[in-house]
Amino acid sequence: MAISFQMGFQGHAAGFRRDSHGSIDLPSNRNYATEFGHVKISSKRRLFICLQRRSWRICCRRGASTLVRKEEIERRNADRCEEQLSILMKFGGSSVATAERMREVANLILSYPDERPVIVLSAMGKTTNKLIQAGEKAVNCGVCNVPGIDELRSIIDLHLKTVNELGIDEAVISGLLEDLEQLLKGIAVMKELTARTRDYLASFGECMSTKIFAEYLNKIGIKARQYDAFDIGIITTDNFTNADILDVTYSTVAKTLLEDWSNTHEIPVVTGFLGKGFKSSAVTTLGRGGSDLTATAIGKALGLREIQVWKDVDGILTCDPNIHPQAMPVPFLTFEEAAELAYFGAQVLHPQSMGPARESGIPVRVKNSYNPKAPGTLITKQRDMSKAFVTSIILKSSITILDIVSTKMLGRYGFLAKVFSIFEKLGISVDCVASSEISISLTLDPSKLWSRELIHQELDHVVEELEKIAVVHLFQSRSIISIIGNVQCSSLILEKAFGVLRENGVNTQMISQGASKVNMSLVVHDSEAKDCVASLHSAFFENTNGFNHEASP
Ligand SMILES: Nc1ncnc2c1ncn2[C@@H]1O[C@H](COP(=O)(O)OP(=O)(O)O)[C@@H](O)[C@H]1O
Ligand SMILES: N[C@@H](CC(=O)OP(=O)(O)O)C(=O)O
């Protein structure tokens, strides 16, 4: 079949190479459904398809690619109109890091033709880091040097390159890029980067990625509309850089998105990570990695069937792959397990993201946008725990231990109450607690609370307050190793864990088992922690002799 195509052919946009003579080069060894029936292209053979009167699109569909006629796409768009939004698909920065990745994500969305998805996107690649670094440089560099800030240049280059490669109009983002430069100049004039300005600055990443992606979807024939989260009713506390979503969000977001959907049937493409402060009306952010929380909050607001969180790993893994490359995917988790895992430091999920999913009972599926065939991790309310033993091992480093011993002026009851009232007054949350009759040990994560420059000053302040009622010892550079598992088997798990630590010559400095019954935490010195995680992983997941039935590869 030697066939040429008409203008408007979408193969190029869908990621397939188009040569200068107007034919397309399709990947081989795949099945293609065409007007001429089913065609399998064997290796090294090219298929040229005649599209004299029609516009076509190529979709990847569960492993096989399909040529779909324009009429079929229109029929699917029409079908969508009669149905409600069904799932949410959130793509993180690594999934939308380049134009090529955006094309692949669009294909991935097309590979779910029966769904009516809401899309949530993070900023492209490392854009958020670069925005914040540019802001920090602007404080001291002088207004006229702002245009030359490396990070600003790299953000502009990436976004312009992306729109050009996707074949969409630069105008989609040019206004935002100008505003960004103006904002950095404003920071340079003021010589100050407040938390409020930092959030506004960070918001440019998500605003640009969603505008580009929505425009691209429209270009390839999928009706889509970009939304800024702060305009559709994601209302938060005014705690800039780490805001919490307020309950009013759920009804407001549902009203806006559902009304628009029923009128226009455009797929919503929403900025992750961002909100609007309740009192200030200013842009807020939900803490680093906050797009996961945006995803579950919108999922809850709309009562969707499933929330998919697409990452660059095959789901939630048995430990951080950067610490131990033998980490393997965990197929099933409960909301409780996932929440503990996220709270105790697994970077893969935002610590608060499981809240809205748990409250609404909507399953969360963590998938790999680089390997969509991998099953990923399914997080649900309940799961079969009969074979559950250890699920994953999480490391949180650079934490501080406080040992607080009562000066006996207070009884134990009054002592604990007084200690916690001091933390409440200072707005500090505690991770692990272990107590005896007259003493209490607890861990704090200072990096979560204060900027690096303030940590020492603030810790001194905490100690000063506590010393009014107790003798206080402070130990820094400690790590919490959290073993997420079935606490019904806690003796067996701890026996094995302590055996491993003993073999490594490590003494545990604190032990804590939360009331959640899924987490056993051991505190060790930072310098020993990574080796301990690797050894524990080997013992629980690699050399198990059938011990850990559940998570074998
Ligand atoms: N237990 C874990 N399971 C999976 N990934 C983990 C885990 N701990 C740390 N990670 C890291 O988290 C990364 C994915 O999270 P993140 O970068 O926030 O994704 P995204 O930006 O795509 O939302 C992985 O690339 C991996 O390096
Ligand atoms: N872009 C924000 C929010 C976010 O969720 O990003 P990611 O999904 O890439 O972790 C950040 O970097 O923190």
Automatic annotation (TrEMBL):
Superkingdom assignment: Eukaryota
InterPro entries: AceGlu_kinase-like_sf (IPR036393), ACT-like_dom_sf (IPR045865), ACT_Aspartokinase (IPR054352), ACT_dom (IPR002912), Asp/Glu/Uridylate_kinase (IPR001048), Asp_kinase (IPR001341), AsparK_Bifunc_asparK/hSer_DH (IPR042199), Aspartate_kinase_CS (IPR018042)
GO molecular function: aspartate kinase activity; ATP binding
Catalytic activity: L-aspartate + ATP = 4-phospho-L-aspartate + ADP
Swiss-Prot/TrEMBL GO biological process terms: homoserine biosynthetic process; lysine biosynthetic process via diaminopimelate; threonine biosynthetic process
Transmembrane segments: none
Enzyme kind, highest EC tier: transferase
EC number assigned by the record: 2.7.2.4
Domain ACT: 404-480
Pfam families (alphabetical): AA_kinase, ACT_9
Biological pathway: Amino-acid biosynthesis; L-lysine biosynthesis via DAP pathway; (S)-tetrahydrodipicolinate from L-aspartate: step 1/4; Amino-acid biosynthesis; L-threonine biosynthesis; L-threonine from L-aspartate: step 1/5; Amino-acid biosynthesis; L-methionine biosynthesis via de novo pathway; L-homoserine from L-aspartate: step 1/3
Keyword annotations: Amino-acid biosynthesis, ATP-binding, Kinase, Nucleotide-binding, Threonine biosynthesis, Transferase
One Gene Ontology CC term in the entry: chloroplast stroma
Similarity comment: family membership: Belongs to the aspartokinase family.
Entries under NCBIfam families matching the protein: asp_kinases (TIGR00657)
Protein name per UniProt: Aspartokinase
Classification of source organism: Eukaryota, Viridiplantae, Streptophyta, Embryophyta, Tracheophyta
